[in-house]
Every structure is written in C-alpha cells, then in structure tokens.
Design a protein that fits this description.
This protein is an alpha+beta fold. The protein has a 4-stranded antiparallel beta sheet, with helices on both faces. Strands 1-2 form a two-stranded antiparallel sheet. α1 (about 50-65) packs antiparallel against α2 and α3 (about 110-120) packs antiparallel against α4 (about 150-165). It is globular and about 55 Å long. The chain has helices at about 50-65, 75-95, 110-120, 150-165, 185-200, 200-205, 220-225, 235-244; strands at about 25, 30-35, 40-45, 125-135, 135-145, 180-185. It folds into 2 domains: about 10-50 and about 105-244, Alpha-Beta Plaits; about 50-100. The longest helix has 21 residues, at about 75-95. It is about 40% helix and about 15% strand. The relative contact order is 0.20.
Length: about 240
C-alpha cells in the first residue's frame, strides 16, 4: 500500500466483506493490535496536514519516551499504549490548531462524501458508534466485522477518488497513508471516546455545542434517537443523507 489508499472505484469495489480474523497484529509504520469484537477508535488525516517541523517534534517526543523508564508494575505493552496516547493527544491538538496545510474537508461537498462513505459500511463491515469530519482529519469509533484494512482502504480510497474528482485533481495524494487506532477496552472507555470525538469541533473553537457541527454523529443523535453506545442503524442512512 502506498502513500495514497487505492483510488479506483466506490466503496463497494474495495473488497468484499468476509470472515475476519481481527485477532491478528500487523505493522506498517506503527504497531497495531486489533482484538476481535472490541470497538476501535480510528483517525485519518490529510497528506501534508502536519508541517515537517511538527512531525520532527513528535518524532523527538517519541524517542524521548522510548528512553523513559518503565513505571512500577507496568508491562511493555501498557507502556506502549500510554506513550501512544500521549503522542496522539499532541498530534491531534496540532491538527486542530493547524494554520497551514490542506483543509480539503472544510468543503461541505467533500465532508458529505466522507460521512456518506462512513455510514455506507453499516452494518456489513462494522458497527458504527461515532464519527466527526474536521477540516484536515477524521475520527471514527467502530467495531470491525471484516479485516481492518478492508475498512480503511474502502473509506480512504473511495473518498480520495471522489473528492479529487470534485477538484479535478485526479492522482493527488489525499490521505496520509498511516491510520492511527486505539481499541476501547470497556463501556466507560467507549463513552469517553465518543465524547472525545463529538467534542472535537468544540475543542477546536469551531462551534459552541457538539450538535452544531454538521459533519458529526452528535448532530443527528436527537433526530435519530441514537443513544450513545448504540450502533448506527442501517435504516438511518436515508435520513442522514437527507440532512445534507
């Protein structure tokens, strides 16, 4: 897989839902552990949305944390998770406050394509619990039912193809190739992640209430009677499309 997730075709052409072995771990630039049956907090950002100086500072932080002594009674895996959360928080704040770099998703037509692609995968590919589309990145909480790579390639590949088509920019590298993920271990963490996702526009100073951001699960919870922790229902897709 290269810098841009596959650009050919719509979401239905990027792989067929099948039996998934989500217990496997795999590695590209970052280590991933994908346990079966647990919701995953996924983040994608646009290629080039983090300036080189920020990337270099994050890399220095990563190396500093690698040299940090392990805490008492902390396993290597727990240490890695703690460090990953710290780096993710810094990275996400940089995305929220970015003053340069691509902001293609501020275009409502582009944001609509991303939201449409996310809800398209329900229910065959995953259960969906929350999402938000920001100007340069996307957060999603879902429980995979097929291989994670099928999900990420499907969403990122389709949206890159469609949004590049809107801008007459075929072949443009759209998404950063790496996706960041963290799995929710219990119901309390699921609700904490949903809050984090839906409050992203408020934290970034883009709106005062979560429901005021149009490209978020928060904006349609009341209309759909969508309780937090309940997966998105297939029958709601038409209502979400009409909201655009």
């Amino acid at each position: 897989m290269g810098d841009e997730e596959g650009l050919n075709g719509g979401p239905g052409e990027c792989g067929q839902p099948g039996k998934a072995d989500l217990r496997a771990s795999y590695q590209r630039h970052l280590p991933h552990r994908v346990p079966e049956g647990f919701p995953l907090f996924l983040t994608w950002n646009l290629k080039g949305s983090l300036p080189r100086r920020i990337v270099e500072l994050l890399e220095l932080d990563r190396k500093r944390l690698e040299n940090e002594s392990r805490r008492n009674n902390e396993s290597n895996y727990e240490r890695g998770i703690r460090h990953a959360k710290m780096l993710f928080d810094k990275r996400d704040r940089c995305l929220d406050t970015a003053s340069d770099g691509p902001m293609y998703l501020k275009d409502s037509a582009a944001a609509e394509i991303v939201v449409g692609s996310i809800v398209w995968g329900v229910p065959k590919r995953y259960d969906l619990y929350a999402f938000v589309v920001m100007g340069n990145h996307v957060h999603v909480l879902l429980t995979p039912k097929v291989d994670l790579q099928v999900i990420t390639q499907g969403i990122k590949g389709y949206t890159a193809h469609e949004i590049n088509g809107l801008a007459n920019a075929r072949g443009r590298i759209f998404w950063q190739d790496e996706s960041f993920d963290h799995w929710a271990r219990d119901e309390e963490e699921i609700h904490r992640i949903i809050d984090y996702i839906e409050n992203n526009p408020v934290r970034a100073g883009l709106c005062q209430r979560t429901q005021d951001w149009p490209w978020s699960s928060a904006t349609c919870r009341e209309t759909l009677n969508w309780d937090r922790g309940q997966p998105f229902q297939e029958g709601w897709k038409a209502q979400v499309r009409q909201a655009f």
